[in-house]
Amino acid sequence: MNSILMDVLRGKTTSRPPVWMMRQAGRVLPRYRALRESHTFHELMHDPDLCAQVTLMPVEDLGVDAAILFSDILVIPVAMGASLEWSDHGPVFTNPLAQYDAPSKLIHPDPSRLEYIYHAIDRIIAQRNPDTPLIGFCGAPLTVLCYLLQGVSSKHDFPQAVKFFYSHPQETRRLIDQVVELTIEYALQQVAHGVNAFQIFESHAGLLPEEMYRELFLPAVARIGKALKEKNVPVIFFPKGIGYNLKYITPDMCDFISVDWQTDIVEARRQTDPNIGLQGNMDPRIFYAPKEVIRAKLESYIPFFAAHPNWIFNLGHGVLADTPVEQLKWTVEWIKNTNWNHDKI
Ligand code: 1CP
User: Do the beta carbons of residue 253 and residue 273 sit within 8 Å?
Assistant: First the structure.
């Protein structure tokens, strides 16, 4: 595969950073919005043809260097038996598990409920340009458990889930094991069906005290990362809000860390193991600013890339739904057409 993203993930030095954006598939693209008029989110995920079309759209319409599977981290709670409906306003959990004392007994993992996703991956692999890498993904155990235990939390602080972690430590460990086991099976199936790289989304890493995250949840991420690395698939870990725990992430867990927009990228580089590459971390809200502001931010990454070429351009969290799509296109073009080595000439 002739791919700048795969080259950087494999440790090669390239003339510019690769570019893709979290949540690039769906949300902002006019063609996605048009499809959403006639199809529900559930239909777009479940129909292999539609799923392949939406997955490949950002490569065609934005010019990014990789596709990410169009699916959701919440497919794992669904495959564990959680009652989840996709409403027009997002996911709705009708029976959150934090109200029970032993939710692990109510969970019935059924891997066959994930099979439709592998059919979609087959379709994407058949339809893509062979040089376009496909990124598979899953949610990390803490983030998945937040939804399983509490459902959606308006301020993203998940008080019922956190209360459960403190009040039911044994059950919490059992649930973590159940999530990890199904997630590893899911991740390895994605690899067997052809994904080229894999991202683990820990959107709520900042929810817990650093020590608790490090002791309880980071080892669970490591189990998933190690299983993928054994298959020689590059792993990117996005621990949003992880703070000082960056130093505790080791190269056996992941190859790259996707840095959130709260953290200064130079500081993240200082704290992270030198054998782990970085991805990120432009604030997704910068696209509301005029072009000069965006250009100045992009230019600030040039000396960073010159010093640390193991870097992938991305945002510090997902693209927001009302982002002007022209700004995204302009940014991708800027990254591809800029001379990133002018400091070295
Ligand atoms: O109406 C619609 O079009 C559905 C909106 C939507 C979409 C497009 C949801 C519901 N999920 C997705 C797709 C999705 N989700 C992808 C596919 C690739 C892409 O868009 O590029 C990915 C990678 C995700 C990951 C995801 N889902 C995360 C982790 C990343 C992040 O943004 O922090 C999380 C937390 C979710 C849960 C989720 N799914 C959907 C919503 C509205 C939510 C958030 C629920 C909440 O408010 O907590």
Answer: no
Tell me the Cα Rg of the chain.
Answer: 19
At 23 the three-state DSSP class reads coil
If you take atom 39 of ligand 1, which residue's CA is the nearest one? 72
Distances (CA, A) of 188 to 83, 127, 315: 25, 21, 26
The pair of structure tokens assigned to 189 is: 């199936």
Residues 257, 268 contacting (CB under 8 angstroms): yes
Distances (CA, A) of 183 to 3, 24, 138, 189: 27, 23, 7, 10
What ranges make up the beta strands (E) of 220-333?
Answer: 235-239, 256-259, 277-282, 311-315
User: What's the pLDDT tens digit per position in 100-134?
Assistant: 999 999 999 999 999 999 999 999 999 999 999 99
User: Closest ligand 1 atom, CA of 32?
Assistant: 3
Residues with CB under 6 A from ligand 1: 23-27, 36, 41, 68, 70-74, 90-91, 137, 152, 156, 201, 203, 318
What ranges do the domains of the chain cover? 4-344
CA distance 129 to 109: 35
Amino acid at 21: M
For the segment 214-272, what is each residue's pLDDT rounded down to a tens digit?
999 999 999 999 999 999 999 999 999 999 999 999 999 999 999 999 999 999 999 99
Report the alpha-carbon distance of residue 133 to residue 196 in Å, rounded.
Answer: 6
CB 280 within 8 A of CB 304: no
DSSP letters, 302-323, are HHHHHH--SEEEEESSPPPTT-
Among all chains, which residue has been given the structure tokens 């690769």? 18
Residues 4-22 pLDDT 10s: 999 999 999 999 999 999 9
Average pLDDT of the chain, as a whole number: 97
Question: CATH for 4-344?
Answer: 3.20.20.210
Which whole number is the average pLDDT over 311-333? 97
Which residue's entry shows tokens 């739904």? Answer: 321
Q: What is the pLDDT of residues 16-50, one digit of tens each?
A: 999 999 999 988 999 999 999 999 999 999 999 99
Tell me what the mean pLDDT of segment 143-147 comes to. 98
